């Protein structure tokens, strides 16, 4: 595996500074940019390790703390392992943060993240890729829809509530997207039932978005997150194969 160089960076936004984990292949050179959107638990060692793996494949990866308005990560104290015994208590603290991240704030922050990547001397010119996990899959959709000329590809994994019947549902971003999309749904995920999967697929098809949506049989919500009880190693490796294939075709690296 390629050696990587990691650092913490500060990104100015309209509502203060967002800190982010930035990792790239070690040494000289410029590399395709990737924006990695967190799950609800936020930036932490397990997500940093995922960013590291992407960087080792040749990408310059930015993992921002999307809850930066509430403080630096971790915004809430996290256990070493997130399981069924502590998950409810954590979500009681996290839900106000998730609900407070309105679509307009997501789009404004995305402009700052994309701008930082565009200005970074270690990031190659051109559109970037996005990968998002759980709530991060919603952020990926909103970003790709708001900035179609700046995003070449998005991957979304075990995303929830991606295609609701609300007027601001994330799937409506398909109408303005130009990025290629891949979504890996968890079939044991009550937050993304079959009717929402079908609604997302229909939105992509009607908008002419190049896409592939797959259901990971037996996988639960959060299957890629190694520090949680939902982690599924086989589903995670399937996710890596799909994501790296997507980025290789759309970004190079």
Please work out how many helical segments DSSP would assign.
6
- Poorly predicted spans: none
Q: Please identify the structural class as seen in this structure.
A: alpha/beta
* CA-based gyration radius: 17 Å
Q: In what order do the strands lie side by side in the largest sheet?
A: 1-2-4-3-5-6-7-8
Record field, number of beta strands: 8
End-to-end Cα distance: 14 Å
Would you list the SSEs in sequence order as H and E?
EEEHEHHEHEEHEH
Q: How does this model look, in words?
A:
- The protein has 253 residues and is an alpha/beta fold.
- Helix content is 34%, strand content 25%.
- The protein is built from six helices and eight strands; from the N terminus they run βββαβααβαββαβα.
- It has helices spanning 45-56, 87-100, 103-119, 135-146, 194-207, 233-250, and strands spanning 4-13, 16-25, 33-37, 60-64, 128-133, 151-157, 180-188, 211-220.
- It has an eight-stranded mixed β-sheet with strand order 1-2-4-3-5-6-7-8, with helices on both faces.
- A hairpin with a 2-residue loop joins β1 (4-13) and β2.
- The protein is globular.
- The two termini are 14 Å apart.
- The model has no long low-confidence stretch (mean pLDDT 97).
């Amino acid at each position: 595996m390629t050696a990587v160089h990691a650092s913490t960076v500060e990104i100015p936004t309209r509502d203060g500074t967002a800190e982010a984990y930035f990792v790239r292949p070690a040494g000289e050179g410029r590399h395709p940019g990737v924006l990695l959107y967190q799950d609800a638990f936020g930036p932490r060692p397990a997500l940093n390790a995922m960013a590291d793996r992407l960087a080792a494949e040749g990408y310059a990866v930015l993992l921002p703390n999307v809850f930066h308005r509430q403080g630096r990560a971790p915004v809430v104290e996290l256990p070493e392992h997130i399981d069924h015994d502590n998950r409810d208590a954590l979500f009681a603290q996290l839900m106000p943060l998730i609900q407070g991240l309105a679509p307009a704030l997501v789009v404004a922050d995305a402009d700052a993240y994309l701008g930082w990547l565009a200005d970074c001397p270690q990031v190659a010119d051109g559109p970037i890729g996005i990968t998002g996990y759980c709530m991060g899959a919603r952020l990926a959709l909103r970003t790709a829809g708001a900035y179609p000329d700046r995003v070449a590809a998005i991957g979304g994994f075990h995303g929830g509530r991606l295609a609701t019947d609300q007027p601001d549902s994330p799937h409506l971003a398909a109408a303005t997207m130009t990025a290629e999309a891949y979504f890996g749904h968890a079939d044991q995920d009550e937050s993304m039932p079959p009717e929402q999967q079908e609604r997302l697929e229909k939105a992509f098809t009607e908008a002419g978005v190049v896409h592939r949506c797959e259901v990971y049989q037996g996988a639960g919500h959060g299957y890629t997150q190694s520090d949680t009880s939902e982690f599924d190693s086989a589903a995670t490796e399937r996710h890596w194969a799909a994501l790296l294939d997507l980025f290789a075709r759309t970004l190079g690296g």
